[in-house]
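<instruction>
Derive structure tokens from the sequence
<entry> Chain with its tokenised backbone below:
===
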Amino acid sequence: MSYLVLAGVLISVIVALAGWFGNKPFTDKDRKLGLLGLIPAHLQWVLGIILYFVSPLGIASATEGFMKNSISRLYVLEHPLMMIIAVVLITIGYSRAKRMVGTGNGFKSIAIFYGIALILILSRLPWHAWPGN
């Protein structure tokens, strides 16, 4: 699911940047392309909240001294907090853009908010746990 989130947000950002710098009007089709980032991010957020409470790497590892261990701190605090902020930014960007159909500002809203969210997501992914690492 995390691959879908990354792909969806990245595609949404690329399309939004192309539309913004191409001075194109933001259409209903472009609004629907913004859903490529929004829907997987929200689904992953729901799955992440569930995993946070049932996984031994989540809230269960918030024992005394977890802040001194970088891996525990990542799983208990940094990753969940950044992902919540990223999903909020994606939601704000999409909500603003959907009201701007017919103008070029919808692209700008998606590009900025989804772009910041993508940076936050990439900054706090547990890369050491991904396949191939």
